[in-house]
Design goal:
5-stranded antiparallel beta sheet; 29% helix; 3 helices; 29% strand; alpha+beta; 5 strands; single chain
């Protein structure tokens, strides 16, 4: 399997898809996934996402689905959010789209 194939398989396994709403666990801010892809120079998987303020962010898939130093997930899908504001976050993602 090539490095490109491995990266694409990692994206597939992570289940991060365009249009999904994810919430930054630390801030509670919602973000909409725009696209997943590969960084050209390294072929590492990346996530491109936009916040309600219109700012577009790019983060490695590993960091996006990873955990913070305290062991908490950095982002959680809005439907999986245990903090009780999943419905608000999903609505915010719809408004931002």
């Amino acid at each position: 399997m090539t490095k490109k194939d491995e990266a694409l398989a990692a994206i597939d396994a992570a289940d991060v898809r365009a249009g999904q709403c994810w919430v930054h666990a630390k801030t509670g801010r919602p973000y909409t996934i725009q696209v997943t892809g590969l960084a050209e120079s390294t072929l590492s998987p990346v996530v491109v996402y936009v916040g309600s303020d219109g700012v577009t962010w790019v983060r490695s898939l590993e960091m996006f689905i990873g955990r913070t130093d305290s062991g908490e997930p950095r982002f959680v899908r809005a439907r999986e959010n245990a903090r009780g504001f999943a419905a608000i976050a999903a609505l915010a993602c719809e408004v931002a789209s």
